[in-house]
Amino acid sequence: MSSLTGTPRLVRLGIRRDRINLVVWIVGLGALSFFTVSAVAGVAPTEADRLVTATFTAGNRLARAFDGPASGTHLGAMTMTEMFGVLAVLGGLMSILIITRLTRQDEETGRAELLGSAIVGRRARLTAALVVALLANVVLATVTTAALLAQDLPLEGSVAAGAAVGAAGVSFAAIAAVTSQLVDSQRAATGLASTALGGAFLVRAVGDAAGTVDGETFVVSAWPSWLSPIGWGQQVRAFSQDQWDVFLIFGGFIAVLVGVAYLIGDRRDLGAGVVDVRPGPATAGGRLSNPLKLVWRLQWATLAAWTIGILILAVAWASLGDGADELVGLSEEFEAMFRSMVGEGGMVDAYIAFVMSFTAVAIGAAMVQALLRTRAEESTGRIEAVLAGSVGRRRWIGATVLVAGGSILAILVLTGVSSALVFGVMIDDVGEGFSSFGGATAVQLPALVALGGAVLAVIGLVPRWSAGLAWGLLAATFVMGQLGAVLELPQMVMNLSPFTHVPSFPAEGIAVLPLVVLTGVGAGLGALGVEAFRRRDLQL
Question: What pLDDT sits at residue 332?
Answer without folding.
Answer: 64
